[in-house]
Amino acid sequence: MVIVGDSRGIFIPSLDFFRAASTRFKGLRLIHTHLSGEALTDEDLTDMSHLRLDLVGALEVRSDGTPGKLHWAHLIAENPRGEYWLIQEPKEPHRLNLNFLALMAALEDEFAKQQKTRKIEAAQKAILVRLETNPQNDAHASLDELRQLAESCGVAVFDTQLQLRPTPDPKYMVGRGRLADIDLRASQIGANMIIFDHELSPAQVRSISDFTGLEVVDRTQVILDIFARRAHSREGKIQVELAQLRYLLPRLTHKDTSLSRLAGGIGTVGPGETKLEIDRRRIRERIGRLEKDLKAIAKSRGQRRGRREKTGLPVISIVGYTNAGKSTLLNSLTQSSVVAEDKLFATLDTKSARLRFPRDTEAVITDTVGFIRDLPAELMNAFRATLDELQGADLLVHVIDVSNERFEEQIAAVEKILEELGIGDKPSIRVFNKADRFDNKELLAALCRRFDAVAACARKRDSLRELLEKIEKALPGAVKSWQDGFAMEQTEN
Fold first, then answer.
1. Which of 63, 96, 116 is the C-terminal boundary of a domain?
2. What does the DSSP 8-state code read for residue 258?
3. Same structural domain for residues 168 and 220?
4. Residue 211, SS3?
């Protein structure tokens, strides 16, 4: 392939049809002239990395038109110096004593060796990116949580990038210069995806994707993907699909102006709808049907709640940050078999069971979907019917993973969501779960006093005595005494 440019530059067409792999180069070399005798530019080097070229070279042109020295560089594998390329010493072309094919083969072998140490079996290999405007925030903690979310989706996380700047870049979020560095890093380590720890606008997704050529995903999309994987009940699947469609609708960006359907019949105006218009209309229609289905489910749920209220049974709702141990606690208290796994958002479907105390005091206890900081608005709206169950609760049991270093932040995130739901003033009991992982018992006792919490281990039934006593005393009309032992009886949701 020979491309002729002009004094201003060279237009490089799409190279998608050439070989491409994270451990191989394109098999193409870019050699051009610099009429003023300058060395390789930053643009030359960036193009080489972005296009995965074997080599980029700039040939000097002497005043008499004869070729001068060749400035050239090639990509190098990941290294302690953090360099992406090696710029060779300029030489006249006839003085180069180099087996270039052997050099390229050796470099590709080095890239391949490094990637064998990574989780290359994953189809998606990501770099996590976060922009932080407040240096006092624990941005690394947020990236750690994003890593857990990404890995829950089967994504292999290759690297994390943190950018500190006063305000987000309206087009690229992290700024063009930093995005170029991230693109170079992705090329070097073989990443094919960038995941941002923010919700990106449709315009930002398009701009970043066009600039890097990589798949671009934001935090909201990752959470939606997890919910789609974990939803099992009909209600849960409807809620997740509704959230996905609401997220997708403003992000339909393809501009296919071809007519996909010619309207027919009396009264039609114009040639019909474009494919984009049809897609949007179908999504809106689907959203309408799903909302109707959710209203029917909410009506049925309200009828069950009404029947429960007639019985006079108090209602307990378990709330807390995702993976705090809510489902495990429900299982221990009621001998239920709700799926309880050590991963984020293992439970999406509401489960209820009956808890019977020693002196025939009974209550209905309900497990709810876990919360997370900055819960996407689409999910809040979609799960409104489920979260409305909390409105009828007489008591909230707030489960907290006290072994988590950021448990105070998680408490604040949960209580913020409860305030947004208008139930922040409901009676509640804080439970410091996973107390068995807390080595310093004196500090644990001090934290319990400070936060007015009960220490427990949801997996160990014997550790729940104090919690059960506190729950019984807090219930309306409950028996005020406590005796050893308690009976449990499961009831269906």
1. 116
2. S
3. yes
4. helix
Residue type (1 letter), 348: L
Flag whether pLDDT at 360 surpasses 50. yes
Q: Domain of 192: which CATH number?
A: 3.40.50.11060
Range of 47's domain? Answer: 29-116
d(CA 410, CA 432): 12
Q: How far apart are CA 437 and CA 153, in angstroms?
A: 27
**Distance in angstroms (rounded) separating the CA atoms of residues 232 and 322:** 17
Asked if residue 451 and residue 433 are part of one domain, the reply reads yes
Residue range 254-266, pLDDT digits in tens: 444 333 333 333 3
Q: What's this model's pTM, rounded to 2 decimal places? A: 0.72
State residue 173's pLDDT score: 93
Tokens of 441: 């018992």
Rounded Cα distance between 433 and 464, Å, is 10
Structure tokens at 117: 């140490």
Lowest mean pLDDT among 165-179, 270-284, 474-488: 474-488
Dihedral class, residue 482 (left if φ above 0, else alpha if ψ from -120 to 50, else beta): beta
Looking at the structure, do residues 293 and 439 belong to the same domain, yes or no?
no
In a domain, 19, yes or no: no
Q: Give me the numbers of helices (H) and strands (E) for the chain, helices first please.
A: 14, 17
